Amino acid sequence: MDLASTYTVFFNTNAPDDHDNSLHLRTNNGGEYNENCLPIYWENLSVHAIIKKDRWLRSSITTRKLLLNKVEGYIPPCSLVAIMGPSGAGKSTLMAALANKLPAQMDFEGSAKIGSLSVRNFENHNFGYMYQQDLFCGVLTVKEHLYFMAKLKLDRRTTDKNLKARVSAVIEELGLGQCANTRIGAGGENGKIMLSGGERKIVSFATELLTDPSFLFCDEPTTGLDSYSAQKVIKIMQRLVSDEGKTVVCIIHQPSTELLNVFNQLILVADGRIAYSGPPNKAISFFESVGYRCPDNYNSADFIMKTLSDSNKSVNSICDEFAASKHAEIVKNAISNEIYYDISSLSAFRNHLSPFWPVKLYHLTGRYLLEKVRNPTIDIHRFLQKVAIAIMVGLCYLGTVQQTQVGIQSVQGIFFMLITENFFTPMYSVMNQLPTQLPLFRREYTSGLYDASTFYIANILSFIPTLIIEPTVYTTIVYCMAGMQTDLYGYFLTVIITILVMAVSTSCGPSVPWFLHWVVKISWFELGFEALTILHWQNVTYIACSEDPDVPCLIDGSEVLDKYEFKVINFIPHIYSMVWLYIGFHLISFVCFVTRAHLNKLS
């Protein structure tokens, strides 16, 4: 069977003729193939999950779990393909392998090619990959989200005018005009206008279409949608194939018979093997030929899923029958007759220049700051809590700051409260903040939008306003209510010290591994407390003594410092020490976070 007849067999579906014609291989005048019309094929493709179990003081145990077992297949150019199968059959693994999206913990054997090149030679902008779960920054509008993604996805040589035009074109193409200025939203935002599930799914399509990819892979794009929204999503995929010449591969979960027949090709995966590959309307006849008859008026997709969910023995039998069938022969002939495609000159496969690192950092930091401004609930609660605590502390020490022996204890108590509030609370807030950002980070990091260093530094920069405002407000309230020294120099340095204490506390977040926790015991609490004590008492020349002879008498600030064994010469070194602790802790956290992200161990 030659290549042309192979294509004819594959495209023998219920689709209209004009749609059918668009699926054949097209060449330009020079004989080069259209970049959107390249076949995907794979041979002897096996994927193992590498499971590594660490053991204390002993070598780790590594096991390999087989997910795909020497499968082969062929996806014709410019086609709409459905992948189906029971849970755990290997559907997502197969699609991830074809899209070069396998995680580091999976081992890839065999070959998977697009045209003449291995899928591993393709870059992220060549593929659009839609995950089952839609993850967004909910405070952004649709237009803002697409603009942000375009800034990180498109070639850095793209002018801002062309970038905005591309965003507008995608919005118009997918019918998102009415909700372009609506916030995407997230769960729990009751009473706020946000996108429906179907609209969020279409925004996911729009995000992937920004780079105009030749191939679009979708993981269960209709799951969780009502029938109307599901039909709308399917129509979008049909239009991408028929009008734009893209190849769309998607995992579908139990569609209706009518919906299933919309696809040009159906691939059934069971127990890591291919159970069927061919036109959807020929699948039932194949199952009947191997002894599994579909009851009358029964949903063919439900029947297929039920049959493939039975015992391993029956599944293996079906896979063996398919391997010996004419459908498998068509696949093998298509692969063996595959011709060489010269794609080196096609625009989609030329070098893509990613935006510069500072540009990515700028936009990511801007998104985090915008998220804080538009979703200020947590920050407002924390700020009000800080104000309330400051007022209570101020009331406790109201009128107690005097140049007396009792006043010494009051001043030291105030310093203790200033340091304590800016020591523990920021550390816990950072530890609670990072886990909420990890799901979106993992998605965007895996997609190649930015690296772990960009994420980490953007978080530090976006936290700077909080780092300055909270300790400044808290210190100012306590400072004024307690009646501390009123010169601007002393107040300014007091604020600087409390900011440094809070800064070091925020740098000791959850990224520091357990074996470096001893570093945290380097006490910036003591450094800050001593610095505040020196600042206040170093220039005090007189302290009134009590008339009670049994009460110790410290007559000036130098005696107070001697009592606490603090030295004036340590003031500047302590300030520098806190700065270096802030930098050092962040460097440790930065290295550990980037390493764990590279090893895909963030959870």
UniProtKB/TrEMBL annotation:
<dbReference type="Pfam" id="PF01061">
    <property type="entry name" value="ABC2_membrane"/>
</dbReference>
<dbReference type="InterPro" id="IPR043926">
    <property type="entry name" value="ABCG_dom"/>
</dbReference>
<keyword id="KW-0813">Transport</keyword>
<keyword id="KW-0067">ATP-binding</keyword>
<dbReference type="GO" id="GO:0005886">
    <property type="term" value="C:plasma membrane"/>
</dbReference>
<dbReference type="InterPro" id="IPR050352">
    <property type="entry name" value="ABCG_transporters"/>
</dbReference>
<keyword id="KW-0472">Membrane</keyword>
<feature type="transmembrane region" description="Helical">
    <location>
        <begin position="454"/>
        <end position="479"/>
    </location>
</feature>
<protein>
    <recommendedName>
        <fullName>ABC transporter domain-containing protein</fullName>
    </recommendedName>
</protein>
<comment type="similarity">
    <text>Belongs to the ABC transporter superfamily. ABCG family. Eye pigment precursor importer (TC 3.A.1.204) subfamily.</text>
</comment>
<dbReference type="InterPro" id="IPR027417">
    <property type="entry name" value="P-loop_NTPase"/>
</dbReference>
<dbReference type="GO" id="GO:0140359">
    <property type="term" value="F:ABC-type transporter activity"/>
</dbReference>
<keyword id="KW-0812">Transmembrane</keyword>
<dbReference type="InterPro" id="IPR013525">
    <property type="entry name" value="ABC2_TM"/>
</dbReference>
<dbReference type="InterPro" id="IPR003593">
    <property type="entry name" value="AAA+_ATPase"/>
</dbReference>
<dbReference type="Pfam" id="PF00005">
    <property type="entry name" value="ABC_tran"/>
</dbReference>
<keyword id="KW-1133">Transmembrane helix</keyword>
<dbReference type="Pfam" id="PF19055">
    <property type="entry name" value="ABC2_membrane_7"/>
</dbReference>
<feature type="transmembrane region" description="Helical">
    <location>
        <begin position="491"/>
        <end position="516"/>
    </location>
</feature>
<dbReference type="InterPro" id="IPR003439">
    <property type="entry name" value="ABC_transporter-like_ATP-bd"/>
</dbReference>
<feature type="transmembrane region" description="Helical">
    <location>
        <begin position="579"/>
        <end position="599"/>
    </location>
</feature>
<feature type="domain" description="ABC transporter">
    <location>
        <begin position="45"/>
        <end position="296"/>
    </location>
</feature>
<dbReference type="GO" id="GO:0016887">
    <property type="term" value="F:ATP hydrolysis activity"/>
</dbReference>
<dbReference type="GO" id="GO:0005524">
    <property type="term" value="F:ATP binding"/>
</dbReference>
<dbReference type="GO" id="GO:0030659">
    <property type="term" value="C:cytoplasmic vesicle membrane"/>
</dbReference>
<keyword id="KW-0547">Nucleotide-binding</keyword>
